[in-house]
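Input record (Table S2, row 339):
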Amino acid sequence: MNCPETSAIIRKQIAIRKYLCSTEQEEVSEIIVGLSAQQKYIPSKFFYDANGSKLFEDITCLPEYYPTRTEKALLKEIAPQISKAFRNIDIVELGSGDCSKISILLDAIPFENMATVRYIPVDVSHAAISKSARILVERFPEITVHGLLADFLKHLSVIPKETKRLFCFFGSTLGNLTRKQSVQFLLDLKAVMKPGDQLLIGLDMVKDIKVLENAYNDNQGVTAAFNKNILSSVNQYIKTEFSPDWFEHVAFYNQSKDRIEMHLRALKDLEISCMYLQDNIRIKKGETILTENSHKYTRRHIFDFACITGLKINAVYTDNNQWFSLVHLNYLIGSQDSQ
Ligand code: SAH
Ligand code: AVI
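Output record (N,N-dimethyl-L-histidine complex):
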């Protein structure tokens, strides 16, 4: 790890450690590489500045955006079963966002065990981690929060290891990785897990195309605003002057790849100067910048993930429509040999 670690104790129960590079060089080069590619892209983690995190919270309340309410309903159903045994455990949430899902699990922990539980949110958004840490310690005064401002694709090794852990990866955020990245990510996660650890992962399932496309093309234009907001992160990192007005929001289901693709399509020919590049960034009218893939899953994918990682499926919970699944996996003693 090249980056200096800074640590802040905000309240007695909350510590936030920063592992993202303070120089932001890596972020700059990730954006430049994307904007220089044949199909221009911006990595989707750049959605989540303070405004982007807020816009995502707004998305989760939209009638068209079924994943959040479906996953929360599933979590409510299974929480008593899963949480009753929580004692001396670290609950690690990757891409933790607004903490509303973890609250459902925490609510079901027996009160006498609460002081033995530590919550470890891992997110690139400082706004999301600090806000949710404050909300959680208000609501669960016994709990300790140890936030990690970190990239789950790069910094899994900084997650504390001394206690048994439940890793949570909700919201189908796995789907925002390419298929190759998601397999590598799960292998990397397995490599930091140890016998006795568990993984609870939320996956959005393949379904009727209309339902999928409506979820990313809401009537109020919140998803469009979320999509365009990524340009303000880009402007901040690479010191450009992209205007959201130069682009339109496009989201469609790519059936051959089982994924929603979100793009920003240029409304006119553009030439944008950037201090990190010799040439201007040129974008033709109609050309798109890919901002997000959101892969959708089948039972087959779920079993493949278990097979690839050697983790054992304890249960697959799904709603009546089979729109969303929560997969509970265990790292069993000896499962390091089963890959
Ligand atoms: N888990 C929440 C939030 C999902 S939004 C839910 O289910 O509602 C995705 C979250 O992942 C955001 O909070 C974003 O900041 C975070 N995120 C995206 N890419 C990340 C990365 N590479 N490393 C860490 N956090 C990331
Ligand atoms: C965080 N992630 C799983 C969301 C998704 O559905 O892919 C982000 C999002 N993009 C548009 N709407 C929601």
